[in-house]
Amino acid sequence: MATHIFDTPIHSLQAMAVLICATTALSMALTRLLIGLLPKWGMIDKPDFKRHIHTKTVPRGGGIGMIVAFIIVVLGFFGYATQANNGLFSNILKLLAPLIILVPLGIIDDKIGLSAKTKFFFQIAAAILAWFLGFRLDGFFAISLPNWLGFIATIIWIVGFINAFNMIDGVDGLASGVGTISAICMAVVAFSQKEYAFAAMLMIFIGALLGFLRYNWHPAKVFMGDSGSMFIGYVLAVSGLFLNARLASVASIGVPLLACGIPLLDIILAVWRRLLGTPHVNPITADLSQHTLQSQEKKDIAEEPLKGNLFSRFLQLLKRLGQADQRHLHHRLMMYYHKNQRKTVLSIYLLATGMGAIGILCCFLPGHNLLLSLVIILGTFSFIINRLAVIELWRTTELAYHNFQSAQAGVKITYVLNPLVDLFVIVASYYFVAWPSSLRFADLLRYLGILLCTLLITRSYRVFWNYVVSDDYFQLICVLFLGFALARISDFIITPQSIVIQRLHLYAAGLAVSVILLERLGIHFLRNSVARRSSASRLNDTSKIHTLLYGVSPITRFYRNHLFNNIEAAGSEQLVGIIAQTSDYLHSYCFGMKVLGTREDLKRIIEEKHINKLVLTIPLSLQERQTLQSFCQKKKLSLTEFSCQETSVNSDRINTQIAT
Hints:
Elements: H1 9-37, E1 44-45, E2 58-59, H2 63-81, H3 88-96, H4 99-112, H5 116-132, E3 139-140, E4 143-144, H6 147-167, H7 174-192, H8 196-216, H9 225-246, H10 254-259, H11 261-276, H12 290-299, H13 310-321, H14 329-336, H15 341-363, H16 370-388, H17 390-404, H18 407-434, H19 441-457, H20 470-494, H21 499-536, E5 545-550, H22 554-565, H23 567-570, E6 573-580, E7 589-590, E8 593-598, H24 602-609, E9 613-616, H25 622-635, E10 638-641, H26 651-659
Parallel strand pairs: 5-6, 5-9, 6-8, 9-10
Antiparallel strand pairs: 1-2, 3-4, 7-8
Helix pairs in contact: 1-2, 1-8, 2-3, 2-8, 2-9, 4-5, 4-9, 5-6, 6-9, 6-11, 7-8, 7-9, 7-15, 11-17, 14-15, 15-16, 17-21, 18-21, 19-20, 20-21
């Protein structure tokens, strides 16, 4: 009887097993049928060697099969199961209703192609319909949203999911496989919370995807098209909203976010690239033909950063979001795995499974442990972004550092940012050290006035911190400690001595000096760190020059600084290490670089590290130079010499040229 289907976990599991098998079989049959019908309907995908990576014509629109299979089994099963829950069938109809907009939209796009604006408009319409039917993002992390903000958040959520799965549908079996993994994670959470009917719906969805995946695995016999990718994104978006509303945990929003983390991360990075105006050359297809490469070079021109007022920038961003992009995660991994689609897909499967497992873990955290939930969710995304978002991080660093080096930026940093940061850090340090005891406001003002006057009198706020040397940092430390010492001396005059006050100034000085130094050093450190990671990463599609420095001397440090101050060269040249003159330097680090060996180890190091360029940073004898030149010619290495020299300027010659 239908009334007993979801009574117990055992009955529910039995029903789910039957449902997933039935849906998989039906989806396979319909997809196989469509492989023959789609070409007759003119729904085919021809390779263009620009955006696509397939090399033969493949039917497009196979997602219709899994959609039909899902709808048939859902309506058939839940129509029967309505006897157990009178509201169950109506909820299923509400879930399916927005598909009336999305499915025809996807089919038309697969047939004739639609503009990004048109698709975006109808996707928003479907999201609005879902909101009116009760699928809403009313809050997250124990924070309730007002109706108007919840409406906007719901639209962004659903449209974001739809486009996220549309964007990752670029490799055989990727979108359907990641969708399956995401649905499995959500189904596990739903089953653990005794939402058996919802878990059964997800199992039907999984079966539909598995049936299609049978023919979409590399080499694909059919593509799902926009109809399939929008269907997957919509169902998972609505499922995430359902879980967020029904789970008791404050981290319930983390389950769909992490379960669908890979597609969401991909669309976030895509928006990030559009905002920065990053050029998008496809490293996977760029070498297929010289003709293709030439045409692509003309088309894939570096976009300028967004300009104008806020509204103008928003319109520019919408226009860019509709443009093709060839720097998605699967493109980078394809390059990493030398165009091996199966390795690319399996690695993304593994990554998606790991993120989904963390999402399931968030579900079982204590109900009110918000801080731990935030740390896990944000920590996971931060780790993934740090490892995969090489292009976006480097482009952001380029723009920030270009602005950082300007005179206008120096004025703002020196006269506005640094004083405000110092003011905040000093006040926070005193309050933090004094806690839980109270600190008199008059005393705080006195300390603050003494410290700021000390910084002003010693001209610390006249130093351009985008152009500094190490002496400036040491002087800042001395000035800050002097200011705290003067503040302590003022206590001898105004207030009685006490151990608490002595410790107050000592600990506050240590904390404030540390934080202020980190602020001054921060942008330099982050920029150099991102430069090193960008150069070393194989996910960056820029051709790398592996450079080996020959010799340990002050010139070696000058070359390193010269490279990192050259924003264009820093992203394309990787400093592998140093060859030392003697064995005394072996296994040590000089100027932040590892000493890999001596001149006797040169041949081995060049072969192991794939060196392209050798830079001389020490003077060599004529015989040593000739030997090294001969060696580099045999190994086809670029040999250069870096030096710092002072040359005389002939004033008479300059005057003659001016007169001429």
